[in-house]
Design brief:
- The protein has helices at residues 7-25, 30-46, 48-65, 69-75, 79-94, 133-144, 158-174, 191-197, 212-221, 244-256, 275-288, 330-340, 353-362; strands spanning 102-107, 113-120, 123-128, 148-152, 182-184, 205-209, 234-238, 265-271, 292-295, 306-307, 321-327, 345-349, 367-370, 390-391, 399-400, 407-414.
- The chain is of the alpha/beta class.
- The chain folds into two domains: 7-229 and 401-414, Aldehyde Dehydrogenase, Chain A, domain 1; 234-376, Aldehyde Dehydrogenase, Chain A, domain 2 (3-Layer(aba) Sandwich), CATH 3.40.309.10.
Length: 421
């Protein structure tokens, strides 16, 4: 039995075992990794009642902590969501193995043949908050890319994550891979997070997935490289050439489908030229759906709209709340987004190709969309099977982080007694 009170010793042990597992996973056969994920998927489904029971404890804990309705929705697991976890595991299992793939190859006049080949990153530490499905997504993607992973879920999802993690370990063991390939920090003690951030001898990269507080802490204190998954301050701009039917469908889905995910729309920008023809209808539809609309001075003329404060611009609500503003033209929309965006996902609704091209060219968010709900900002919807997060930085990985993004590369150079003159 591990001593869960000596956090430094606990984390050093987990780190050492992860590093040893990573050394084996680096050359593990693609078939073994696929088998492990398929077996894990079967285990999740067969143990779904156990997982739902564990989630019930977490829901009770979250309710007692006063989590918002949207946060409880992120935490909740039912049979349909467990089916989604199973589907994600199977999708990742079925993907082509990225390790060993030749990214590029060329011959030099010196006689050298050079190949750039995909290789694992090593050990990945994933620190996340309330969504228990991240346990499965992160474990699967790291394993597929030949990495060992250390999972540190949030206190709210402690029991759910534990039950899902047990299924992942069952799959790894069934495939004959090292059991330490997927480890979970078995304590709610926040000191474990602090330890992970400084474990440069064992961890190659940290992936934080959560709110601004968590990501800020990691970015400030980590000595290990970080793939930051920053908050989703998602904008939708309704252009003067927007189609009213498409606009209504997209805006309502982007805001109300699931408010607690990072792709949920948080700010609506409306071109002044379509305020009367499209804009007012959008605002009224949001209000009728139970969304609190915090509008600028122009929009406050619509009954039910409350006054927006400066703090509403650039705010991630993760709730049935949206900020809304009227802009004079596309450049004013771009300027607003550049000022307040978190570089996650931003969308334009327009039938004008030139306007869409300008929007795409002049904004540099990780994901830019046209005439599509921002709720599609998800690795699964991008064909990655699952995602470990949406990286909002610009180094190494950006946007949805799937198995391919969890790799590095090495150069393999072949000669024939070749010497340099």
């Amino acid at each position: 039995m591990k001593d869960l009170t000596d956090i430094p010793a606990l984390m050093q042990d987990i780190g050492a075992r992860a590093k040893a597992a990573a050394a084996e996973l680096a050359f593990a056969p693609a078939e073994a990794k696929q088998k492990a994920l398929e077996a894990a998927a079967e285990a999740v489904w067969s143990r779904r009642a156990e997982i739902i029971a564990a989630n019930g404890k977490d829901m009770e804990y979250g309710t007692d902590k006063g989590l918002s309705k949207a946060m409880l929705d992120r935490l909740m697991l039912d049979e349909a969501r467990i089916q989604g976890i199973v589907d994600g595991l199977r999708a990742v299992a079925a993907q082509e193995d990225p390790i060993g793939a030749v990214m590029d190859a060329w011959d030099m006049p010196s006689g050298l043949h050079i190949e750039r080949v995909r290789t694992p990153l090593g050990v990945i530490g994933v620190i996340y908050e309330s969504r228990p499905n991240v346990t499965a997504d992160a474990g699967a993607l790291c394993l597929k890319a030949g990495n060992a992973v250390i999972l540190r879920g949030g206190s709210e999802s402690f029991h759910s994550s534990g039950a899902i993690h047990a299924c992942l370990v069952e799959g790894v063991k069934a495939a004959g891979l090292p059991e330490d390939a997927i480890q979970r920090v078995p304590t709610r003690d926040r000191a474990a997070v602090k330890e992970m951030l400084t474990m440069t001898d064992f961890i190659d990269v940290i992936v934080p997935r959560g709110g601004k507080g968590l990501v800020g802490l990691v970015q400030r204190e980590a000595r290990v490289p970080v793939f930051a998954h920053l908050e989703g301050i998602v904008h939708i701009y309704v252009d003067k050439d927007a189609d009213p039917v498409k606009a209504l469908k997209v805006v309502m889905n982007a805001k109300t489908r699931r408010t607690g995910i990072c792709g949920s729309a948080e700010c609506l920008l409306i071109h002044r030229g379509v305020l009367d023809t499209i804009g007012q209808g959008l605002i009224k539809a949001l209000l009728d759906a139970g969304v609190e609309v915090r509008g600028d001075e122009t929009l406050q003329a619509i009954a039910g709209v409350t006054a927006a404060e400066e703090s509403d611009w650039g705010h991630e609500y993760l709730d049935m709340i949206i900020a809304a503003k009227v802009v004079d033209d596309i450049d004013a929309a771009i300027a607003h987004i550049n000022r307040y965006s978190s570089s996650h996902t931003d969308c334009i609704l327009t039938e004008d190709d030139a306007a869409a091209a300008r929007f795409f060219q002049r904004l540099d968010s990780a994901i830019l969309m046209r005439n599509a709900s921002t709720q599609f900002a998800d690795g699964g919807e991008f064909g990655m099977g699952a995602e470990i997060g949406i990286a909002t930085g610009k180094m190494h990985a950006r946007g949805p982080v799937g198995a391919m993004q969890l790799t590095s590369f090495k150069y393999q150079v072949t000669g024939d007694g070749t010497v340099r003159s």
